[in-house]
Amino acid sequence: MTKIAKKIQMVDLKSQYEKIKTEVDAAIQNVLDNTAFINGPEVKAFQSELEQYLGVKHVIPCANGTDALQIAMMALGLKPGDEVITADFTYVATAEVIALLGLKPVLVDVVPGTFDIDVKAIEKAITPKTKAIVPVHLFGQCADMDAIMALAKKHDLFVIEDTAQAIGAKFKSTDGTTKKAGTIGTVGCTSFFPSKNLGCYGDGGAIFTNDDQLAAKIRKIANHGQSVQYVHDEIGVNSRLDSIQAAILRIKLRDLDNYAAARNKAASFYDKAFANHSKLTTPARAKFSDHVFHQYTLQLKNVDRNALREFLASKDIPAMIYYPIPLHLQKAYLDPRYKAGDFPVTEQLCESVVSLPMHTELDEETLNYITTNVLEFCK
Ligand SMILES: *Cc1c(COP(=O)(O)O)cnc(C)c1O
């Protein structure tokens, strides 16, 4: 198949920017004209617009998604030695902040198909020292929050949702209600890293909660533990979203649902092309969540993954491996409690997954070119 003119990228931020360039450029210029770079009106406006969009009482912007997780854990008063359960198959940030705060990361496996944290495994991992569960809404789909919230209630645990990859995804509870990812647990944490579904043009993050007291504590910790200027009640951090990023995020938030629709359209194209293929398993859809497709991730069977990636690269098609190494086998997180073979699903996924280009600007010609080449190699 002849190559297509447009460069294929995992995430095409340039083409997306070109569509909103006039608005974005004017918004940035406006911040420059007002020189309110930190905590200006743009940050407050974005905060309240995101609260409305998510249907949550408090959004506290901060510097990035990793900080969001750290600040949430600090605000919940977790103490060194407390156990925090999270998924073995995730981006490192989730476990990193747990370890950084002297808490004990307790890893559990995920379920194949949806890549969701395995709730039965969470239950087995709970001990008297367990204080919190951190479900990760991986690749754009919610974890099983009904089951997780029920476990948390039974064992009196905090739930810190890592929704860095799933902002805007809707969770459909068995009680008939629908809530946005990150607004179900005690607290939700997200990232506005450029490649995330709601990405700014630098770093950014936010914390969500419906709890007034917790929101006040989070705000204080994100601002040097300060209640009144130069009065420090506790040790905090310095973590802020800057005004230029907030101004950009306000514009992109208006398009977020359209962005999710574009991602779903691309995912449906992939699904259809790879349906019932003996060597390719398409991502499963959880019945309790819609999907915002941060990533479109295939599981390969009897396919040489490196050779596939090399073949695709020779056709100018990028493909990435999220994630190649389970957390429990990462050098920094090695722990005598864990050994190879302990988390068979995650270990299998790390060896068999491949993520295809996924963003808001994929047209049919590009999708056709990508799928034709994947099928050509996997025939
Ligand atoms: C991106 C990401 C984070 C961290 O966000 P940053 O803004 O890069 O710090 C945390 N958790 C998950 C699952 C992520 O994908």
Question: Would you give an account of this structure?
Answer:
- This protein is of the alpha/beta class.
- The protein folds into two domains: 15-254, Type I PLP-dependent aspartate aminotransferase-like (Major domain) (Aspartate Aminotransferase, domain 2, 3-Layer(aba) Sandwich); 256-377, Aspartate Aminotransferase, domain 1, CATH 3.90.1150.10.
- The protein is 39% helix and 15% strand.
- The protein is built from twelve helices and 14 strands.
- The protein has a seven-stranded mixed beta sheet, with helices on both faces. The protein has a three-stranded antiparallel beta sheet with strand order 12-13-14. Strands 6-7 form a two-stranded antiparallel sheet.
- Strand 4 (130-134), helix 6 and strand 5 form a beta-alpha-beta unit.
- The structure holds pyridoxal-5'-phosphate (PLP).
- Pyridoxal-5'-phosphate binds at residues 64-66, 90-91, 93-94, 136, 162, 164-165, 191, 193, 203, 205.
